[in-house]
Write a structure and sequence with these properties.
It contains 9 helices and 17 strands. With 347 residues, it is of the alpha+beta class. It binds adenosine-5'-diphosphate and magnesium ion (MG).
C-alpha cells in the first residue's frame, strides 16, 4: 500500500517534469509574467498568469514579427503588401496564407460597410502623413486626385493559387486597421498551443483576453478616456476569453485652428472622418473582427454604427460621443461599468 503510494508520487513527478510549456500551478497564485516589445508600430505587452517558459514569449513575438514582415507598408522595409502595391498592377503576385486571410477579411469589412471601411485607403493615408512629423492638411486638389485610387473593388484575390492583384497604378493597400487584430489572434493561438490558458495580449491598447483570470473571475479591461492621457479610463469592461478593441480620433492626430485631424479617413471625402463620435470599443471573440469593426463603426457614426452592431451575432459595442455620452449595445449593459462621472450613459 505504502509502496503503491510512492510509485504514484514518482509517476506524478515524472509527468510534471516531462510536461513543457506552461502549467497552471493550481490553487497557488502565480506572479504574472509580462514581456514588452515594439512591433507593428506599437507597444506589445503579453502577460501570462501561469508558470511559463521564456521561450513561449519569444515564439509569440516571433509570430508578430513574421506578420509585420508580410504586411507592413512602411517604406523602409519590404513586405508582401509593398510588393503587391508596386508589382501587382493587373498582374497576380503570390502572397502567403496570412496575408491572404487579412486581405480577405479587409475586403469583407470594406464590402459590408459599403466602402466606409476601405483597405485601399493607403495613398490617402500617405498624403495626410498623420502620426509623422510631416503631417499637414493636404492641398484639396491633391485629395481629389487621390480619391479615385481608393476603391477596394479594384483588389482581386484568387484563393486557389494564393495570389492578389490590383487594378490601378498608385493604389496602396493599407492593412493598418486590421493587422493588429490578426496578430493578436495569432498570438493567442501560439499561447494556447503552448499550454497557456490565462493571459492578456495588448497591442497598443487593443486587448485580447485568453481564458479567464486564474481565480475564475472575468478580466476587467479599461476603456480609454478619449479626452485624457493613455491609461486613463472612462469605464471598465468585464470579459472572459474575448477581445476589446477601440478606435478613435485620439490615437494619432494633429490639431490646426481648433480642428482635430486624425488617422481614420473617410473614403468618400478624403478627410479624417468627422461625426459625433470620439471612440468606439468593440467586444468580440476574434480580435480581427473587433479591429475591423471598431474602425468601420467609428466611420459609420453613432446611429448607423449602433444599428449595424445590433444586427451582428456575437458582437457588442460601446460608443462614446464628443459630448461625453456613452451608448452601449443591448448585450453589454451588464458587462460595462462607467467609472468616470464626467461621462453619461444614455440608455
Ligand atoms: P489604431 O491603428 O489606432 O488602433 P484603427 O484600427 O482604427 O486604429 O486603424 C487606423 C488605421 O487604419 C489608420 O492608421 C490607417 O492605416 C487605416 N485606415 C484609415 N482610414 C481607413 C478606412 N477608411 N478604412 C480602412 N482603413 C483605414
Ligand atoms: Mg481597427
Amino acid at each position: 500500500m505504502y509502496k503503491k503510494k510512492i510509485k504514484k508520487i514518482a509517476l506524478l513527478l515524472a509527468a510534471f517534469i516531462f510536461l513543457t510549456g506552461c502549467q497552471a500551478s493550481a490553487p497557488k497564485a502565480v506572479e504574472p509574467q509580462k514581456r514588452t516589445n515594439f512591433l507593428l508600430g506599437t507597444i506589445i505587452e503579453i502577460t501570462i498568469f501561469e508558470e511559463c517558459e521564456d521561450a513561449v514569449f519569444q515564439k509569440a513575438f516571433d509570430r508578430i514579427s513574421k506578420i509585420e514582415k508580410k504586411m507592413t507598408i512602411n517604406n523602409a522595409q519590404t513586405s508582401e503588401i509593398i510588393n503587391l502595391n508596386a508589382n501587382g498592377i493587373n498582374r497576380p503576385v503570390s502572397i502567403s496564407e496570412d496575408t491572404f486571410q487579412v486581405l480577405e477579411k479587409g475586403i469583407y469589412y470594406s464590402t459590408l460597410s459599403n466602402g466606409s471601411f476601405d483597405i485601399s485607403i493607403g495613398s490617402m493615408v500617405k498624403l495626410w502623413n498623420i502620426g509623422t512629423d510631416q503631417a499637414a492638411i493636404p492641398d484639396p486638389v491633391e485629395i481629389q486626385k487621390i480619391l479615385p485610387l481608393v476603391n477596394y473593388k479594384d483588389i482581386i484575390l484568387n484563393k486557389s493559387n494564393l495570389t492578389a492583384q490590383i487594378r490601378q497604378e498608385g493604389m496602396i493597400i493599407d492593412l493598418g486597421a486590421i493587422a493588429k487584430g490578426y496578430a493578436a489572434d495569432e498570438v493567442k493561438r501560439v499561447l494556447l498551443e503552448n499550454g497557456v490558458s490565462s493571459a492578456i495580449i495588448s497591442l497598443g491598447g487593443n486587448i485580447l483576453c485568453v481564458g479567464e483570470k486564474p481565480d475564475g473571475s472575468p478580466w476587467r479591461v479599461g476603456v480609454q478616456n478619449p479626452f485624457d492621457l493613455r491609461g486613463e479610463y472612462l469605464g471598465i469592461m468585464e470579459v472572459k476569453d474575448q477581445s476589446v478593441v477601440s478606435s478613435g480620433d485620439y490615437e494619432r492626430y494633429f490639431e490646426k485652428d481648433g480642428v482635430r485631424y486624425h488617422h481614420i479617413i473617410d473614403p468618400s471625402t478624403g478627410y479624417p472622418c468627422n461625426n459625433e463620435l470620439t471612440s468606439v470599443s468593440i467586444i468580440s471573440d476574434i480580435s480581427i473582427d473587433g479591429d475591423g469593426l471598431s474602425t468601420t463603426t467609428f466611420l459609420m457614426g453613432l446611429e448607423k454604427g449602433m444599428e449595424f452592431v445590433e444586427n451582428l451575432e456575437g458582437i457588442e459595442a460601446v460608443f462614446v460621443t464628443k459630448d461625453k455620452n456613452v451608448y452601449r449595445t443591448s448585450g453589454v449593459k451588464d458587462a460595462f461599468t462607467l467609472t468616470n462621472k464626467e461621462f453619461k450613459i444614455v440608455e
